[in-house]
């Protein structure tokens, strides 16, 4: 198989399709915002930029999705980018950023912070803690297009065992063991 | 022709909303996110904004009736309202939120009560105009026309 691995991509309709191009690899974004309106808008913005989106309303819920919440399912390998609001009740976007960067399994996931307030100290703190970017709300389509460039890419490996079985079994029904097997293949 | 008349009305209403500062460019961004796959996006966002705002206004009214007033709570609600009005492009509502926060920060109850009245006025004004806009769009589509895109 020349050219590396097949990469799985899922259309918004939910059906599986397989893409063999590194350029249109699927970007799965985890969006975190306590505001329902902002979640709706960011979700639409991301989807119109061909991203898959999981939108949650708190940092705590975000950590559950990422596999740090004590649940057994580790779906961290699915998330290519985290975009989070800064001001949230309970766990702030900054707290979430810290937790992600302190985690050996999650620290490679790029984190982008959004805020409606332009506070230089806040921006500096977030960037120092490892945030890729700090966006001022409301987020624009141009910002979202740029974010795709930050998304963690899946690197093809020479011992990749992509085949029809992989292509047809990839998806939500994938068992935990099979996912772990695949993530060892895809991540060095 | 009915469609032309409705389209003209829509263009006039939209222009006045922008010229009078009720809406800013963010609303245009919201409109641009609507497409065949998401034909009700603007309506949904407006609906969420209306519901959320009414909840916040009710909480703010209650908070300012307490003795003593918890200004941090007031500020938190206004911050939320500022965020949502900014996200939908409701410029005048957002501007009152800025003043409101200043009053909350200086714990000025009179100022807060005034700002609350003003915010209610601005919110209900932009809400009814947005509803009129959406209704015109529905009427145009029902009459077989297409909704003119603003530049």
TrEMBL record, chain A:
**InterPro entries reported for this sequence:** ARR-like (IPR045279), CheY-like_superfamily (IPR011006), Sig_transdc_resp-reg_receiver (IPR001789)
Keyword rRNA processing among UniProt keywords: no
Q: Which Pfam families match?
A: Response_reg
Q: Report if keyword Transcription is assigned.
A: yes
Residue span(s) of domain Response regulatory: 28-152
- PROSITE patterns the record matches: RESPONSE_REGULATORY
Q: Example GO biological process term? A: cytokinin-activated signaling pathway
Q: Which SUPFAM superfamilies match?
A: CheY-like
The family note in this entry says: Belongs to the ARR family. Type-A subfamily.
PANTHER family in UniProt: TWO-COMPONENT RESPONSE REGULATOR, TYPE-A RESPONSE REGULATOR
Q: What is this protein called?
A: Response regulatory domain-containing protein
Origin organism of this chain?
A: Ceratopteris richardii
Automatic annotation (TrEMBL), chain B:
Please provide, alphabetically and separated by semicolons, the GO molecular function terms listed in this UniProt record.
histidine phosphotransfer kinase activity; protein histidine kinase binding
List keywords of the entry alphabetically. Cytokinin signaling pathway, Cytoplasm, Nucleus, Phosphoprotein, Two-component regulatory system
Q: Name one GO biological process term.
A: phosphorelay signal transduction system
| Keyword DNA repair annotated | no
What Gene Ontology cellular component terms go with this record? cytosol; nucleus
Where is the PTM Phosphohistidine found along the chain? 79
Q: Does the keyword Metal-binding apply?
A: no
Q: Where in the cell is it found?
A: Cytoplasm, Cytosol; Nucleus
Domain called HPt: residue spans: 38-133
The Swiss-Prot or TrEMBL note on domains reads: Histidine-containing phosphotransfer domain (HPt) contains an active histidine that mediates the phosphotransfer.
Q: What does this protein do?
A: Functions as a two-component phosphorelay mediators between cytokinin sensor histidine kinases and response regulators (B-type ARRs). Plays an important role in propagating cytokinin signal transduction.
Q: What is this protein called in UniProt? A: Histidine-containing phosphotransfer protein
The species this protein belongs to is Ceratopteris richardii
């Amino acid at each position: 198989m020349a050219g590396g691995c097949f990469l799985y991509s899922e259309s918004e309709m939910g059906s599986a399709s397989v893409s063999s191009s590194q350029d249109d690899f699927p970007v799965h974004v985890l969006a975190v915002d306590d505001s329902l309106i902002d979640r709706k808008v960011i979700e639409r913005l991301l989807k119109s930029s061909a991203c898959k989106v999981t939108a949650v309303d708190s940092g705590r819920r975000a950590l559950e999705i990422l596999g740090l919440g004590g649940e057994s399912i580790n779906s961290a390998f699915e998330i290519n980018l985290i975009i989070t609001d800064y001001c949230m009740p309970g766990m702030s976007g900054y707290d979430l950023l810290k937790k992600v960067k302190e985690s050996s399994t999650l620290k490679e996931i790029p984190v982008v912070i959004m805020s409606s307030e332009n506070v230089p100290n806040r921006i500096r703190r977030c960037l120092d803690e490892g945030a890729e970017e700090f966006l001022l709300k409301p987020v624009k389509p141009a910002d979202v297009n740029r974010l795709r460039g930050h998304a963690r890419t899946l690197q093809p490996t020479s011992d990749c065992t992509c085949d029809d079985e992989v292509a047809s079994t990839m998806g939500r029904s994938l068992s935990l063991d099979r996912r772990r097997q695949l993530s060892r293949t895809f991540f060095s | 022709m009915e469609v032309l008349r409705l389209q003209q009305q829509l263009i006039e209403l939209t222009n006045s909303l922008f010229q009078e500062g009720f809406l800013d460019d963010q609303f245009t961004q919201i409109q641009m996110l609507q497409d065949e796959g998401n034909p009700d996006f603007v309506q949904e966002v407006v609906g969420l904004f209306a519901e959320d705002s009414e909840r916040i206004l009710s909480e703010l009214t209650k908070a300012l009736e307490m003795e003593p007033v918890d200004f941090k709570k007031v500020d938190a609600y206004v911050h939320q309202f500022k965020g949502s009005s900014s996200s939908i492009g409701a410029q005048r509502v957002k501007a009152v939120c800025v003043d409101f926060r200043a009053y909350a920060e200086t714990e000025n109850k009179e100022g807060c009560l005034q700002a609350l009245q003003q915010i209610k006025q601005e919110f209900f004004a932009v809400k009814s105009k947005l509803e009129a806009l959406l209704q015109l769009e529905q009427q145009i589509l029902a009459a077989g026309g297409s909704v003119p895109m603003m530049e």
